[in-house]
Design goal:
51% helix; 4 helices; mainly alpha
């Protein structure tokens, strides 16, 4: 099942993480996967996702790999 089709456990916490107001560690693991999936879908690199979510690049890369996503190499300006 794709992460973006799963129900969000805590919508308020998820929204705060999407906006960069809270670290992703407050989310359930499935919600962290969804967050990485969505940001990756919008073209964000592992470094950008890690900085925004306050996760390490290792963790972002591990989640991205588990989801079967290739690395993004930068967003178009």
């Amino acid at each position: 099942m794709r992460p973006d089709t799963r129900p969000i456990t805590n919508r308020i916490a998820y929204r705060a993480c999407v906006q960069g107001e809270q670290p992703a560690e407050i989310l359930a693991p499935a919600d962290r996967e969804r967050l990485v999936y969505e940001l990756h879908h919008h073209g964000w690199t592992d470094i950008e996702i890690a900085a925004h979510t306050r996760m390490t690049t290792y963790t972002v890369g591990r989640i991205r790999t588990r989801l079967g996503l290739g690395a993004n190499h930068g967003r178009a300006a």
